[in-house]
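Readers of this paper often ask what the protein records in our data store actually look like. Below, we set out a record of this kind in full and without editing:
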Amino acid sequence: MRRRGFTLVELLVVIGIILVLIAIVVAGIRHTSSMAARHETEAELKVCQDLLTEYKDVNGMKNLEGPASTVVPYALNLPYPPWLNHTYSLPMYLDPTGGAPEVTNSQPETAFGIDDFKGTPPPPVPNQPPRPVDAGDMSDKSGGNNPRWGCRAVYNTQGVMFLLLKDPKNRAVVSGMPSKRILETWAPFNAGGPQAPFAIDAAVLLDGWGNPIIYVPRGGMHVRMDPNSTGDPTNLLEFVVRSSGTYSPAGVVPPAGPNDHPFFASAGPDGYFTDISPIPANRKDRSMDKINSFQAQ
């Protein structure tokens, strides 16, 4: 007795079932990969927070945060090479307590402003219009001026890590980490692209998606979010994220208090801490997926 072959309808049903199974497997792999990246990020944030705790137990907030009256310009210079023009005033950040006015987009400052997540302007090209600064993507490795290497938030974090890693215990912890968990260096004189991972002196740790984890001062960080999930880019509002809560500058942002502490932050899966576009209609809510160390503990 001859076996009947598949009809066209039956064949299409089988193909459909196979496609559904493939989609389920792919979705499962993506979910597993995303969960693994998040767990890795939370572990790295815990390491960063432990480094800060060790430093504070020995030194307090010395060189990290202090009043404006104690600022010493260009008191910290990172070794050359691999760092170029990495010079900082100390303390790294200004003490935001006691009703001191907020200072952003400078060094030292009390909090990160929106512009602190911009890359540095690319070098001008003769007879060409100025090239735009990247919109804040920490995963973009196409140039040393991009936020991954060029924004103040990462630049300042390198200075903070330089201080934290002066502690022998902290240095031992980071020295034992795999190189893929440390931000690679970009030197403008290296035409071939990124070099080897940063030397231990100012190692910036990477999250589970391979993007730099930044140090955020007690005054917090300004970000743009769509709290009502309207999907309308013109509805994005600016907020200040601190360890004590999230505050809207349009409302009343209280002075930093005892519940406000420095913390570390990951940009999350999309690689953006916030959208820095100056044009409201072009903005997207890129801040809701951030992961902060005070949430990951």
